[in-house]
């Protein structure tokens, strides 16, 4: 006889909404006496951190913050921003961490578009916030973060973060609905107006758990907070670290020298960092001649890392795992999972393998590379390009107040990334480009990422990006923008010759432009600015 397995038996005993808040609730008890926060002279345990988060939540509630309210934050990676990842959602409110390096016009746009009801701002960023208010023609209530390590400007003086933390702690309360909005993150601004990406509690919970599994995080790691928490909520690491009782080390100054100092002084075991940060660490004069021992495990994402950078990082004692994701997917959703047989490869060959974006994280349902014309998966030949499509619980709810863009992103029941990739015979995915960054020259597709990887092997080049420049014969040609290393020199002819010696001639840049490259705060090169600059050069002569 058929059993009635579909009978309704869901109640409070067997169904609890998933939320990353539960991680800190547990850590406050299980890791009560263990180090949670290290920042300058500040040392706090998980019990103290949990209590502070509940106190800050109570202080916010006293200001009238409640379910569905957007709380915007302008702050570098310091303990207060970490605490707000728990305090704001504890009230059912939505955390909006704002990129601190944006120009006032974009900050003003975000504050207005997000319907922010309160801003919590480090006083060093008060001038930026004042200008954003001026541009919007209105102000919002402000809570000042007064950091003794900052050369701070005068804040707004309405109330301080310490005032919030002085309230009696409220009790832990999980959301009733795990689909409830948790955070609002704006896309990083590599192209046009940023979109507001809505995260829910379920997705953040699963991403944090998936990170533990994918990174094989041990109990009580020492984690250096480098990934800006305004970017995908620090790749959800602030929530992951509560699961394993990590010691979170913060450095307000994210310069290579300060990061290297913290890595050595606190015996850091884990960190996340964009490839540009890895390169800065490897090239820093403060880098020790001796590699870190034991190795520091590093998760890198944000742009495909050049193999040359990965090779240098390995020599420095950094065990780097390449991951891939987008703001719309809570950060990383694929990983270049290490294979034992790679141990037998040369250092450069291992770096080539590590530059792949790899396979899906444990909590991701599926990742495909699709030929958009046919709707079929591309062959596993490492050559045929398609678009990465993603399906899973760690895909955003949608774009805030933008139903049209949401519908386009979710066409046919998949999230379409806009990234062009190939699939290798072993099933590993490798990004070739953003679709809009593919250069079509004489009918041939040229991957800007492939050309950039060659440029990074040039000893004089520190940073490189390649975009299309109009060409009267070929339609488009590769145009390279490069920053040279301090004290290094190179000519356009030398760089073009180097590329032609290491890549097919039609793929080599026909133009090289020297100078600083525009970047987002997370180290991504803003190619939309470079595309405009290349067009402004006019057609290739």
Record the SSE blueprint.
Elements: H1 21-30, E1 35-39, E2 42-45, H2 46-62, E3 70-74, H3 79-90, E4 94-97, H4 104-113, E5 116-122, H5 126-136, E6 142-145, H6 161-165, E7 181-186, E8 196-200, H7 201-215, E9 222-225, H8 232-235, H9 237-243, E10 247-250, H10 256-265, E11 270-273, H11 275-283, E12 296-300, H12 307-315, E13 318-326, E14 331-335, H13 347-354, E15 359-360, E16 364-371, E17 376-377, E18 386-392, E19 398-399, H14 403-409, E20 415-423, E21 429-434, E22 439-441, E23 444-446, H15 448-455, E24 461-471, E25 475-484, H16 492-502, E26 511-514, H17 527-536
Parallel strand pairs: 1-10, 3-4, 3-5, 5-6, 9-10, 9-11, 11-12, 12-13, 25-26
Antiparallel strand pairs: 1-2, 7-8, 8-19, 13-14, 14-15, 16-17, 16-18, 18-20, 20-21, 22-23, 24-25
Helix pairs in contact: 1-2, 1-9, 2-3, 4-5, 7-9, 11-12, 12-13
- Under CATH at level 1, the class of the largest domain stands as Alpha Beta
Distance N to C terminus = 80 Å
Ranges with pLDDT <50 over ≥5 residues?
Answer: none
| Shape, per Cα inertia axes | globular
Please, what is the average pLDDT?
92
Instruction: Let me know the number of strands.
Output: 26
Question: What's the CATH topology label of the largest domain?
Answer: Rossmann fold
Q: Main sheet, how many strands, which sense, barrel?
A: 9 strands, mixed
Query: Helicity level, as a percent range?
Result: 25-40%
Number of helical segments with 4 or more residues:
17
Radius of gyration: 24 Å
Number of domains: 3
Class computed from helices, strands and strand pairing: alpha/beta
Known CATH architecture of the largest domain: 3-Layer(aba) Sandwich
Give the amount of beta strand, in percent.
Answer: 25-35%
